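Record 1 of the preview.
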Amino acid sequence: MKKTLLATAIAGAIAATGMMATNAQAATVYDQDGTKLDIYGRIAMGIEGGGPEFNADEEAVSNDPEFVDAFSRLGVRMSHEVTSDLTAFGRLEWRFQGDGGDNRFNAFTETRQSFIGLQSDTWGTVQGGNFDSLYNQFVSIPFDVYINRGLEFQGHPIQSRGDSIAYMTPNLEGFQVGIQAKHYSDRGSLESQDVADQQDPPELADRGNVVAVQGAATYEIDNLRLAAGVVEDVVRGGGNGELLYGVTAAYEFIPGFTGRLGFETQGSDDEFGRGFDTIGVGMSYSWNEWAFNADYYNVDQRGESARDSWALGGYYNVSSAFQVFLELQQADQQSITFLGDDDIIETADGDDVYWLTGARYFF
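->
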């Protein structure tokens, strides 16, 4: 499969921030007669603080520092060579709480990936199960470089993560297309149940068998990568029933330095939520053991005033398996005025900078 210079540069930048380091550090447990089994993962812990001063209900919340798990995970990757052009594969990945404490009694909190499929350099790839959305893999991935927060475009869960099937074409001289469908079912529910009584929570309004479809395409030439995608953001999956469109572009200006630009838009629904127009611009730079990310977004939430958001990240690889990091993020939030017990007016601007710092060990 052909790889362009830009694809390599983007992969290098993401790996530097740790998104792909788990694959780089994978330990091969078995490799014989065309069958391979790898184990990979990371233990990640840190301290976070700052962020919003109040929630969506305009209630004041504490944003004091706290010792946290920074998205630790454990995974298994499997493959079997059926023919010289056909490989069967599987992947299983869990997310666990590595910070211990009360979490030690319920450490494994999420089955993050669990899918199987067939891959051919000639015919493409088909897979089914629980995996990151193709929209994320094709369109928003150049911006998905932060350990936590920082991404304002739709990420990997968008109408995905379970009960999904996808097909991706092979790389055709830099051009690739993918299509995915996620199935929602009422199997096992009472057919006599009155749909009119199921409007709360709102996602039950889309009862019956519902299929959410999404598609995306990328084109890479030399140092330029272009991507576009559309998602049927059905109410059943937490959307507002309107189509989501997105485009991104990434360009490697010099070795190690990649700039990116993106745009997302979605229509509004009076019952299930307002749409938005989001513009994002950012960069990644990697140099020896160092890597840096910087992004800025302007989000026009229809019916409300536009808001700004920015994120910064710095990462240092102490070794190929150990990394320390610092991330900052700030998203505008409306100001709230609180009336205290003594009738003293306190104003919260909601704009405390969120920060996360810590270390990760990859294996």
